[in-house]
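Obj.: predict assembly geometry.
Materials: sequence records (below).
Method: joint structure prediction, all chains together.
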Amino acid sequence: DIVMTQFPDSLPVSLGERATINCKSSQNILYSSNNKNYLAWYQQKPGQPLKLLIYWASTRESGVPDRFTGSGSGTDFSLTINSLQAEDVAIYYCQQYFITPPTFGGGTNVEIK
Amino acid sequence: QVQLVESGGGVVQPGRSLRLSCVASGFTFSSFGMHWVRQAPGKGLEWVAVISYDGGYGTNEYYPDSVKGRFTISRDNSKNMVYLQMNSLRPDDTAMYYCAKAAGYQPLGADAFDVWGQGTMVTVSS
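Observations (raw structure tokens):
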């Protein structure tokens, strides 16, 4: 199985500042035939369904604010939230869908400093 | 409105069985794979099962080793329903169970999940 390692576990950020979450896969998840990274990012808030934010490592899901940016390739990825808003307080997960079983990172808890 | 609603959770003794259900609405259910993902209290996300869409050659199902042989996923396209039959339940199966729609980025098996339900809680305890 591909192991997804996220860091940090907790990330206190001031309102309006930038938050960067890192995610590392134990194997390359870039498929050379289509040059796509099989990585997604999700947001989890209490009492709400999980929300897909980013797929193909950097493609924003429809309706996701452009302050959310995904980047990286191969084994190293990041999710950046520019100008953190109060509604961005949540746990964020990365996930690879390169091979079965799909696996998730352990989550990063973004909170207001 | 695209929506998934799970039901069927509860408290069950170790070794017993439970069947979870998920009803889908707002999209062409028969055209997409469907997954179950679980989250133990205070823990991260663990994929549990997938059933592919029926492309005319039947469906395919996959499971991680942790539930293989104990859990069975199935679907009823006429009712827009997906099910998870859980047998021989263990205390470490205690979790919130989420139904999730495959985004369609892979033909079967692993995929991203673009729609999630609110979850149904399963507690395995004597």
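Conclusions so far: Chain B touches chain A at residues 4, 44-47, 50, 62, 64, 98, 100, 103, 105-106, 109-119 (CB under 8 Å).
To do: check interface contacts against the pulldown list.
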